[in-house]
Fold UDP-3-O-acylglucosamine N-acyltransferase.
Amino acid sequence: MQFSAHQIATLVNGSVEGDPDVMVDQLAKIEEASSGSLSFLSNPKYEQYLYTTKASIVIVNEDLKIDRPVQATIIRAKNAYTAFSTLLELYNQMRLQRVGIEEPVFIHPSAKIGKNAYIGAFAYIDKDVVIGDNCKIYPHVYIGENAQIGDDTTLFSGVTVYFDCVIGQRAVIHSGTVIGSDGFGFAPQEDGTYTKISQIGNVLIEDDVEIGANTVIDRATMGSTIIRKGVKLDNLIQVAHNVEIGKNTVIAAQSGISGSTKIGEHAVIGGQVGIVGHISIANGSQIQAQSGVNRTIAETGKKWSGTPAAPYSAQMRSQVVYSRLPELERRLEELEQLLLTKELLK
Amino acid sequence: MQFSAHQIATLVNGSVEGDPDVMVDQLAKIEEASSGSLSFLSNPKYEQYLYTTKASIVIVNEDLKIDRPVQATIIRAKNAYTAFSTLLELYNQMRLQRVGIEEPVFIHPSAKIGKNAYIGAFAYIDKDVVIGDNCKIYPHVYIGENAQIGDDTTLFSGVTVYFDCVIGQRAVIHSGTVIGSDGFGFAPQEDGTYTKISQIGNVLIEDDVEIGANTVIDRATMGSTIIRKGVKLDNLIQVAHNVEIGKNTVIAAQSGISGSTKIGEHAVIGGQVGIVGHISIANGSQIQAQSGVNRTIAETGKKWSGTPAAPYSAQMRSQVVYSRLPELERRLEELEQLLLTKELLK
Amino acid sequence: MQFSAHQIATLVNGSVEGDPDVMVDQLAKIEEASSGSLSFLSNPKYEQYLYTTKASIVIVNEDLKIDRPVQATIIRAKNAYTAFSTLLELYNQMRLQRVGIEEPVFIHPSAKIGKNAYIGAFAYIDKDVVIGDNCKIYPHVYIGENAQIGDDTTLFSGVTVYFDCVIGQRAVIHSGTVIGSDGFGFAPQEDGTYTKISQIGNVLIEDDVEIGANTVIDRATMGSTIIRKGVKLDNLIQVAHNVEIGKNTVIAAQSGISGSTKIGEHAVIGGQVGIVGHISIANGSQIQAQSGVNRTIAETGKKWSGTPAAPYSAQMRSQVVYSRLPELERRLEELEQLLLTKELLK
């Protein structure tokens, strides 16, 4: 795929300075670009690279002053970063555009598949599944009985969706992620063994959710494990049965949320965080990476850190003293020695 | 699937009060149920919902006193919770019942498959594999050369079982779990590179084991990585080479057990726990979430917490003081100041 | 596969004492071996087992003194451990040797596949993919458009390689691992939602890299996420977008490295470690399991521990005092009481 400076300027509503016919076929950072690349300059810190870059085209802000000769063709746009992001997105959509049903696939005769679908080879679509319009179901995806997938959703290679689960519109789910495996529920028996508690609920994922690779969301014991509209989950995350994650909450990789916990809206949760079961986390909470949250957070919009999680600033103060603990102990010993010497302590 | 109150009462050995012909086609919690649902009341805390629920049928304890009019048909059973659990399990078995071999599959001519098997499309069953009776092998499962799967075992979509591994009877393994990948063994060389140590052992999983999704159990260097009878493992767990996990031990999500460590029987290990290699953990140990265990636990039945893991109550005491560390330091400084002022310290 | 003592001695350049025609068909530890097994004795600690083992053949060091009768046939080799490792490796290569393309597979007509390839059933190889010589692509592997796989590389069942990613020679990647899923990049919007930042870079894996099962390496936003030559990654690891991991670095299971962080060469990182984004870790750093690294490590070859990670010996000293915190507080209270009593403090 090749584009001329003229074509790109048209796409981003910009103006060309230099050769309008120069062609590019890749995107690159301004400091790393080679000939044939399109790049952009937004951060003034990188301005020096404008004069040395090997990029063939550079998009810059409308009002940028250029005071020395530049090799590249320049495209001036209102906001260079936004213009470049738009191009990235267009490029990506073109790259990932595919339609049609490859062979072999397994599609149960009762399954309904919307318009313009891509179904990759070796995908498995079971009985009574409903898939919306413009979906991309990559190879090796498994969609169990009676599951529903909304319009414009992409499931990358190897995603598993168990029976009865529901995924909204415009979702993107990356490879190896499992939606709807059994919740971890076992009743201890008198002989020391455990009896499984059947998990007959489902997972309900609302619109505009993105989920990374190899994440697991367990189905509810009864009812639904719920991922609300606009949630973004990273890779290798554990979401246990009957959890609910509120709108537009973002969770980084390798965090785990135990059963029946309810996370509020607009929360930001770092990587490797653990949250115990049966609590709730207020809207707008910010939880630092590796924290362990063991009780309900009721106040909205606060920052938390550590195990057990405490308010961020208190945690930072304790952390600083922790690093001085050996010195603290020595000072205490000195006082004890002194008071012993003075015969005040014995 | 629809059932009448009469049919359900027969299944759970109960008696009907109200319309025996009312039909239900789903299960729900009493506080969330809609018309057409079957629910139950066991915990007295929820008794109020009996009078407001929209459930069509509610199973209650034999001896429950009902003093106001109730909309739903009532089924009295010896133990409402047990009766409901039995129904859940029956329902689930019906939902997941499937038999037969779909197309296309890859089954090596030398593989032996027992009676009443379900083999989903795109399953791969290699040379000399032996699969017992009544197994369910879902789509995209891979079973390597010479592996053995016991009777009544279910491998959900996308499970991988490497060559030579052995899985017992009545196992349930969820999607994306990998059994028998190479242990992480490399010998450092003088030039700074690493040489792989071949991992020629296997994984041995005994009867009645359940394993969640995207968990990994590595094969032994030599001999076997062993998961004993009745063990329950959650999602995203790491079990390294030559580990042994004792009977009826339960491990929550995202925990990791390093090489050659031996976990006792009836242990309960929380989520995100790390256990170093080459140690042993006594029977009945309870290890709190996010703990880091760095030495052998020899005493049975104790509770542990923290990194490095310490007895639970000691850890709780240290934790409390930790949150007061800045105050502690201030008090120490005051004493120092005082003694300086009094010219006792200089 | 059966081998005689004579054949084995020839392979390892050793000499036979006892029956040169005795046959073995398995490998086992000396203390666990049964008849028909080949074992070895290297560590003097295990010497006692030489006289009780049921192994049919034992490889020992050339100069070992044997002063009592031994049942097994003995093979003397220069270094018993090295000799045994060589045999392990040969055995493993024979076990895993396979060539040919099974059916059904999906191979795009434009894909190029080298000599002596094994392509398992249900593998998916997309447009313009290039696969080197002697590669083993197991069943259910997905290789996206334009990806490249070097000579002698093995991708076990269920590995996913997204479009444009590049994997070097002699790589081994275990089941369920995902290479090239989107980096976790979203721009917060004024209405509280997030807009995806397209991730158009790739993952570049150099030669001689081994990666465990269910690990995830995200593609770069632009440019490449880079895994340098000789790196060894364990299971369930998270490598975020634009990370670079230096030559011969080893990372244990369940660790996570956030975006744009650069890990040096010859580092050793324990399990469940978390490393924040946009920092660098010096060559030869050793990071203890469960550590949380939140700033750049500039000094080479040091040992780190804890959250936030501190120099190992300082961390150990703080840890020891931490376990005595309740006692420390009590001692401080005693001093305060004393000074109160003496009317020095009020």
About this structure: Residues 3-95 of chain A form a domain with the Udp-n-acetylmuramoylalanyl-d-glutamate--2,6- Diaminopimelate Ligase; Chain: A, domain 1 fold (CATH 3.40.1390.10).
